[in-house]
Specification:
The chain is mainly beta and 115 residues long. Helix content is 10%, strand content 43%. It has one helix and seven strands, in the order βββββββα. A six-stranded antiparallel β-barrel has the order 2-3-4-7-6-5. A hairpin with a 5-residue loop joins strand 2 and strand 3. The radius of gyration is 14 Å and the shape is globular.
């Protein structure tokens, strides 16, 4: 696969094909479903727009790693958001700005899994 010259992401994003709900670790509020994930960022599909450039501490599952997938916490910053084609949905891109060593290892293991 030839890299897309328009692609500006630092790391390849892996699509998430299983429902994976992401939660704000501070408020407990549902932020949306994980659309894709990389070592440096993620796409969330939610019902409301995040604040521009806001920083969040999110809790997200790593689906496919056992019956009860592990949950990791990451600090992220909103990079962009836009209304999706489906009414009532918003797509939002986040950059991971803080992740613990253990969580980073779990994420890397998940990213290396097939599928």
């Amino acid at each position: 696969m030839t890299p897309d010259p328009q692609e500006s992401r630092r790391a390849h994003r892996k699509p998430v094909n299983i429902a994976a709900e992401v939660v704000d670790a501070i408020s407990g509020r549902r932020m949306g479903q994980l659309g894709n994930l990389s070592a440096s960022g993620m796409l969330l599909i939610g019902s409301e727009a995040p604040r521009n450039e806001a920083i969040y501490q999110l809790r997200l599952p790593l689906p496919g790693l056992g019956e009860t997938p592990p949950t990791i916490e990451v600090g992220v910053q909103e990079q962009w958001h836009e209304e999706a084609a489906t009414p009532g949905q918003v797509w939002a891109g986040y950059r991971i700005i803080a992740i613990g060593d253990h969580e980073a290892a779990q994420l890397q293991h998940w990213l290396e899994m097939p599928g």
